[in-house]
Amino acid sequence: MSTALAAGLSLAAIAQTAERPGRTWAATCAACHGSDGKAQGAIPSISGRDTEQLYRTLLEFKNGQRPTATVMHQHAKGYTDDELRRIAQAFAAQAAR
Amino acid sequence: MRQAHPMSLSRRHFLGAGASLALAGCAAVGGGKPIARVVVVGGGYGGATAAKYIRSWDPRIEVTLVERNEFFVSCPISNLVLAGTKRIEDVTLPYTGLARYGVKVVRDEVTALDFDSKQVRLARGDPLPYDRLIVAPGIDFQFDKVPGLAAADAGGRVHHAWKAGPQTVALRRQLEALPDGGVFAIAIPKAPYRCPPGPYERASVIAHYFKQSKPRSKLVILDANPDVVSKKGLFVKAWSELYPGIIEYRPNSELVEFDAQRNVARLQFEDFRAELFNIIPPQQAGRIAQPLVSVNNQWVGVDFQTFETARVPGVHVIGDATASAPGMPKSGFMANNHAKVAADSVIALLTGAPVNRETILTNTCYSFVSDTEAMHVASVHKWDAAQKTVVPVAGAGGVSAARSALEGEYALSWARNIWADTLG
Question: I need a surface site. Which of B96, B98, B186, B307 has the fewest CB within 10 A?
């Protein structure tokens, strides 16, 4: 079955495949920030933010430049800068849908 | 607190995902013949999330979720039901939101997994054929490891309340009936067990109830482990500052037998008597996954890049039933994360796309220590090619600087968000 399916994959689907790691990593954020980053309650929503702004914020958490952080600095330190950028892009891509 | 319904996620997500795939030139969404069938067994934090995300990310795949209970009852936050600050209704949610994603929810009991004919057998309905199977059975209890415990549980004398639901309500009633001055004991099994900080949170919030309503009562923690398993410094500080004279912590106190007649817990070197016990039994992978168990005769070994089992190709296991990677907790948060990695991998394997080998999993567990104050433990886990498993990233993760009301608000917000993320 998978061979036939692979043959049926369009270029657009393959392009989408290339974004999959970022999409899956970004999905881990949803456990606190809500599906697609749409949160309820005290935890901030992160959907619809500009890629650069979100990436900069994540870097500030990672580099200890957000003194009021409770947990985000501990998460951000677990990722390379490139991974954080791809996560920010995934949120922007969701917002665009 | 605003009473926003956790199911209030808009339809935009589902419609958006469908639209983007239709643009990609794939099979028709909705009316078309599915390109593959996935069956998910178990609708907890792992299973329900996996079902929803497969449909969200590739609506060409038919997904059937089999769950025996009518409602999802959350273990996280259920300790607050025991403490009397939340009601069981507050942690009980319907499965109806998953229909928005096109997940077929079948309420039935799985009787067998037939790997040869690739079918899931049900107690009432017709067998469900699958191309790939995701098993998310959570835990079952090993009552046989503690003589006397099965009878005490069956007789309604002792409740584990470690699967939220009727036992949570029953233990709350027992706590309400406990006279002021009565001794209540919580027995914790050796790790690994579901929710490492959970027993200590339970002790803390019940001590808060005692302090308010039964100030002469005592709470004794009989821990089979040599020390507090999670957030030790924060729990010990909370106990000494908030509940002096109420909580007593006893390490290395494994329960070896339980005498329900006399309400006596037999430990290795002594007998311990209390008016009321809450015994959390030793645990293993949910019994429906028994044929897949490969680690210590208890847990299911999986490849953390795909969550495919070591035993049976094409069968994936997620959540508490898996043999945990180093430093990985058995938590609802982690099960929700397992589900997303498994969903992505199952889609890749069914469509011939490359599997993402850069696995990243995260965890954040909030624990309440009173009716308002909470604290967290967090970690980030990444694939390590040399060790062929996921390991915690050094320098990342950690615990709260201190317990706080702000983190209490985050904990409640977290619950609403993960419930919506899991159940639609």
Answer: B96
CA distances to B361, B364, B378, B418 from B334, in Å: 7, 8, 11, 11
For domain B143-282, the CATH architecture is 3-Layer(bba) Sandwich (3.50)
What count of residues does chain B have?
424
Interface contact A2-B349, CB threshold 8 A: yes
Interface of A with B in 20-49 (CB under 8 A): 20-21, 23-25, 27-36, 38-43
Distances (CA, A) of B397 to A59, B179, B379, B411: 15, 42, 4, 17
What is the residue extent of each domain of chain B?
12-140+284-354, 143-282
Residues of A whose CB is below 8 A from B423: none
Q: How far is B113 from chain A (nearest CA, A)?
A: 22
The pTM assigned to this predicted structure is 0.91
Dihedral class, residue A22 (left if φ above 0, else alpha if ψ from -120 to 50, else beta):
alpha
**pLDDT tens profile B125-154:** 999 999 999 999 999 999 999 999 999 999
Q: For domain B12-140+284-354, give its CATH number from 3.50.50.60, 3.90.1150.10, 3.20.20.80, 3.40.50.2000.
A: 3.50.50.60
Chain A nearest CA to B343, separation (Å)? 9
CA–CA distance, B229 with B155 (Å, rounded to integer): 30
Mean pLDDT over all residues of chain B?
A: 93
What is the per-residue DSSP string for B74-93? -STTHHHHHHTSS-GGGGEE
With contacts defined as CB-CB under 8 Å, which chain B residues touch A58?
none
> Considering the domain A19-96 in this protein, what is its CATH number?
1.10.760.10
| A12 close to B (CB below 8 A) | yes
Residue B415 three-state SS: helix
Identical fold for domains B12-140+284-354 and B143-282, yes or no, is yes
pLDDT for res B392: 98
Distance from CA of B222 to the nearest CA of A (A): 31
- pLDDT tens-digit series, residues B226-241: 999 999 999 999 999 9
Report ipTM for this prediction. Answer: 0.90
How far does A88 lie from chain B, in Å, by closest CA?
Answer: 15
How far apart, in whole angstroms, are the C-alpha atoms of residue B319 and residue B336? 8
Q: Chain A: residue nearest B336 by CA?
A: A31
Interface contact B129, partner A, CB < 8 A: no
